[in-house]
Structure formats: structure tokens, C-alpha cells
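User: I'm putting together notes for a lab meeting next week and I want to include a structural view of one of the chains we've been expressing. I don't have a solved structure, so I'd like a prediction I can at least talk through. The sequence is below, exactly as it appears in our construct file.
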Amino acid sequence: MANVGIIGAGSWGTALGILLCNNGHGVTVWSAIESEIDMLNEKREHVDKLPGVKLPDTMVFTKDVKEATDNKDIIVLAVPSVFTRSTAHSLKDIIKKDQIIVNVAKGIEETTLMTLSQIIEEEIPQANVAVLSGPSHAEEVGRGLPTTILVGAKDKETAYFIQKVFSSEVFRVYVSSDILGIEIGAALKNVVALAAGMADGLGYGDNTKAALITRGIAEIKRLGVLMGGRPETFSGLSGIGDLIVTCASQHSRNRKAGMLMGQGKTMKEATEEVKMVVEGIYSAKAAIALAKKYNVEMPIVEQVNEILFSDKPCKQAVKDLMLRDAKPENDDAQWSK
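Assistant: Thanks for the context. Below is the predicted structure for the 337-residue chain, given as C-alpha cells.
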């Protein structure tokens, strides 16, 4: 049995806690929101984020962050990406050397263009930082529906240890050493999912959705490979897999926010209605900044930014995407004549 601390009691942190308890591990969950801990202890259910999902009796919820971090084999960092740096900074003096920290949030910091694992390593240099990512909505993991996911770590021993702790008959875990590629795919798919939602809001069909997913992963891969990620990562679970589920699922907050904007709501109105952090909005500016830094063409990301921050109508953005200069699908097209 492993002892696991979870920092963050939102839908994802709670769902992973349920999974780990069902795997027979000791789980202690901490939240910066004291009322959330009170609710979880009293109701034994996350009534806001995972309604109807009963929490295991063995799952411990605490207001003491040291209780959730002391003597733990793994610490899961499950706070929204915008709070990753501040949370990591608050933990830096209580984390022991070589402590395994598994980040499960997805995003890129707008001001520094750093991935979340890079932020954690900067704030907690003594930690052994890994990532967990892939097509995995908390609403389904919390209910025990079959899910497959990817662990990225710097060393093989850490990767296989995390794999063993998380794996179950309903949660299949693969391993990879390409942390950067995993995180780039995880963050930028949220931006493309906003576009997919906008298309749904405009009333467009399956053809449009398929085009956005296919060309979206092409954009993500172009940037990710130049940044140092491996090409095959973007064809896997944390690349095309995560992109498909986020663009298509009813659980996707990014798709829902995009759909509301496609129906005519402002970004502010859409995020208020979703009532959860829409990670793609925070990653969109970082994505376009990275595109400029690496001189990569990312037309979908560019149009999403114009909609979000320059009040461009969604319908005009789609028209501009469709009317771009015609070109081959792949740059290395070879002709017999």
C-alpha cells in the first residue's frame, strides 16, 4: 500500500482520490478552501463537482497541509493551472528531498511560457516531478468507467512506481519519458477545444469538428516538436487522444465555454456560466506567444485568440480559416510528376 497526499479537492483531485482508495492506498486530501473540506467530510460527496458519487470511508480530508504532505510516497498536485505556482511556492519548505510530485493539471504559464512541471521544479527544486495526463474526465473516473492515461517521468523507476500505484481494472496507465511533449499536448488541446465548442455553438456539424481536431493536432505537433517533444507523443493518449475527448465530450468545460461563445455570449459570460476554471483561455495567450517565439504557423490558435481578446465574431473566424491560402496537407508532399 502507498500513502498518497492530494493537494486540491476539485473534481479531478477527488476522482483520483476515489481511484487510489479503491486501489487499496491511503489517501489524504487537502484544499485551500476550508468550506470545501467541511462539505466533503460532512456529505462524503463532492456535491458541486461530482454529484451522486459517494466517497470511500477511508478517504481522509484535512485542512492541515502538512497532514497531506508528510510521509507520503506520492503527492498529487491537482490545483488549476493558474494556481500551480502559488501552491508550489507555499509547499517548498515542507517538501522533502526526492519527494515524488505528480502534477495532473494542464496549462502553460502566460508570463513565463513555462510548463507546469517546470514551474514546480523551479519552486520546489528538491522534488522529483512527474505528470499524469490523457483523455480522462473526472466525472467518468470518479464513477469507475474504463480510462487509459499516460505517466511522464524523468527516470524509469519513478514512472513504473506511479504506474503501479494508479493502475487498476478500470484505469490503465502507460509510461513515457517525454514530459515536455505530454504537457504541450495537454495544455494546447484546451485551446483547440474552445474552437470546437465555438463550432458547435454556431451549429456546424461533424465535418467541422473532425477538421478542427485533425488540423488542431497538426498545429500542436508542429510547435511541440520544435520545443523538444517527441513526434509520437502527439499521436498518443496525451496528444490526439486527449484532444478528441476534450473537443467532443459533454464533460469538457473548454468545449462548453466555446459553445456558449459560439452562441453569442462574451468570454466573461461564458466562463461565469461554466462555473469552473476554463484552462484554454489561460493557455491561449501562451500558445500564440510560443508560436511567435518558435516561428510556427498556428492559425486555429490565432483565431481563438482573436475571438477571446479582440472580440472577433466566431463566424468570421471560421470564414477566415476556410479562406486561407490553399496548400498541401503535409509540407513534404512528393509527386510522381
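A couple of points you could mention at the meeting. The mean pLDDT is 95. Residues 3-177 form a domain with the Rossmann fold fold (CATH 3.40.50.720).

User: Perfect, that's what I needed.
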